[in-house]
Amino acid sequence: MPRGNYQYYARDLATQIKTASVSYTVDPDITPSVQVTPSHASTGQTFSQPGSGFTPNNTAKLYFIYPDGHTDSSTVKATDASGSFSNSYTVPSTMPRGNYQYYARDITTQIKTASVSYTVDPDITPSVQVSPSHGATGQTFSQPGVGFTPNNTAKLYFVYPDGHTDSSTVKTTDASGSFTNSYTVPSTMPRGNYQYYARDVATQIKTASVSYTVDPDITPSVQVSPSHGATGQTFSQPGVGFTPNSTAKLYFIYPDGHTDSSTVKTTDASGSFSNSYTVTLTMPRGNYQYYARDLTTQIKTASVSYTVDPDITPSVQVSPSHGTTGQIFSEPGLGFTPNSTAKLYFVYPDGHTDSSNVKTTDANGQYVNNYTVTTASSRGLYQYYARDVATQIKSNIVSYTIDP
Predict the structure, then answer these.
(1) Which residues, listed in sequence order, are joined to residue 370 by a DSSP beta bridge?
(2) Smaller CB count within 10 Å for the chain: N or C?
């Protein structure tokens, strides 16, 4: 049947009288439909709600069923020559939240479209966090999200150091719009800076990005030398194996138990630093513990110990100054480190040195030593001195003679 407007009238054959005309229209066959995009939106976002397949150059009535069940049918749209219309709606803050149904009716034919649904979401401000900000193999990063659409989903995005993005993780949000996520760094994880953000799946709102760093695996350590020293002694306290081109914090535990952590050192390209300390007169005497912490990874070194010794002036004596077979030489020492040790040195007439004798000092820093001359003792002039083992301070030198 040809589509269009028809005129209809009749003629009485007996009288040839003609009736007035009446008109009717055979309409095109239509299959109207509506669409809506996106399927979710919140305040400030715009829904596009076009229609197609309606009677051309005519009108369509739009119906919106609200979440509470009432219907708004106040919108009528003119269709164009192809039977289409456009409609859009920007969500105001006062718009009821929930699920809507939308359909339209072709006014010419009264044909109704199928319904489509869309959701006006709660206004949200999603955000993500990460802690700690640095970590190496074995470190667990906590990566929670808050402020998302409740009882829905969030898609997580991780931008790697090489620029590629992993978006394979989807988390379910709870009734408060939050989710939890954690990740423990494996040894195969690329090292470098990562960016992390998430997208609310319901509204497609994207969070701001946060950054964190997967650090190189390190084994930092510190050393100290010498292990003892008194006033004027310089202790070398280097560190190695730290994060390169970063910082390390040094900790010194004093003999009274308090800790000095005021020193921060910059590491070089190999992850090392140098530090030294010269003992002053006012430096507390006793045993110290020393360790350092890599500030990038917070990895702590093992502790090493060293001792700041009392200021001493060790000396030795010998009497008598001469003796032959049977003579006992008294060779005491004093002024050494108390309750420690002293090493005795005897330079023989032929020039060789005997350093096999080690003496324990008493609480006053003194020791006694005696030597009885035998027939086998070498004859001639001897030199005698001692070294304080704790501080390596050397005493004065005294001489004595074993006579023929």
Answers:
(1) 330
(2) N
Instruction: Kindly state the DSSP code that residue 295 receives in the 8-state scheme.
Output: T
Q: Are 290 and 298 in contact (CB under 8 A)?
A: no
For residues 355 and 284, membership in a common domain is answered with no
Q: What is the pLDDT of residue 296?
A: 83
Rg (CA), the chain: 48
Which of 214, 231, 246 is the endpoint of a domain?
214
The pLDDT of residue 26: 79
Residues 95 and 171 in one domain: no
39 and 111 in a common domain: yes
Grouping H, G, I as helix, E, B as strand and the rest as coil, residue 193 is: strand
**Quick check: 180 and 140 in contact, CB under 8 A?**
no
As a whole number of angstroms, the distance between CA 17 and CA 133 comes to: 98
- DSSP reduced 3-state for 62: strand
The residue behind tokens 């802690």 is: 131
Parent domain of 95? 33-120
Q: Is residue 13 part of a domain?
A: no
Using the 3D structure, point to which of 266, 283, 308 is the last residue of a domain: 308
| Domain count along the chain | 4
Checking 318-324 for CB contacts under 8 A at 24+ apart, the result is 318/384, 318/398, 318/399, 318/400, 320/400, 321/399, 321/400, 321/401, 322/400, 322/401, 322/402, 322/403, 323/373, 323/400, 323/401, 323/402, 323/403, 324/373, 324/402, 324/403, 324/404
CA distance readout (Å), 188 to 13, 148, 185, 216, 314: 100, 32, 8, 11, 59
Summarize pLDDT for 107-131 with one digit per residue, the tens.
999 999 999 999 998 888 999 999 9
- Average pLDDT in the chain: 95
The arithmetic mean of pLDDT across residues 262-268, rounded, is 97
* CATH number of the domain enclosing 337: 2.60.40.1930
If asked whether residues 296 and 321 sit together in one domain, one would say no
Question: Cβ atoms within 10 A of the Cβ of 128, count?
Answer: 22
Convert the pLDDT of each residue in 295-338 to its tens digit.
988 889 999 999 998 889 999 999 999 999 999 999 999 999 89
Per-residue pLDDT band at 192 (split at 50, 70, 90): very high
Residue 26 belongs to some domain of the structure: no
